[in-house]
């Protein structure tokens, strides 16, 4: 189910045509919140090493910072139905 939901969320036109999915318009933020609740970000988007290596080595990347970067990368690469 996770894969189907992810695929449909990334392609709004398919959601409209899908009989299995009750379509209702949701914002990108709501889509991303769903992906976050399902724990899909780590499987979907990796933060490039060059980003992590350019941060202060005294501090580790916090979970919310990593997710923010993953959301941005996904938005820029895959979200064609931008709000």
What's the short story on this structure?
It contains 6 helices and no strands.
Explain this structure.
The chain has one domain (2-78). The longest helix has 16 residues, at 63-78. The model has no long low-confidence stretch (mean pLDDT 75). The protein has helices at 2-10, 12-17, 28-37, 41-44, 49-53, 63-78. By secondary structure, it is mainly alpha-helical. The chain has 6 helices and no strands.
Distance between the termini: 25 Å
Content-based structural category: mainly alpha
| Domain unit count | 1
Helix content: 55-70%
Based on DSSP secondary structure assignment, what is the total number of beta strands?
0
Note the overall shape.
elongated
Mean pLDDT: 75
Uncertain stretches of 5 or more adjacent residues: none
Count of individual helical segments: 6
Summarize the helix and strand pattern as letters.
Answer: HHHHHH
- The share of residues in extended strands comes to under 5%
The value of Rg in angstroms is 15 Å
Largest sheet properties:
none
Write the layout of secondary structure elements.
Elements: H1 2-10, H2 12-17, H3 28-37, H4 41-44, H5 49-53, H6 63-78
What are its keywords?
83 residues; elongated
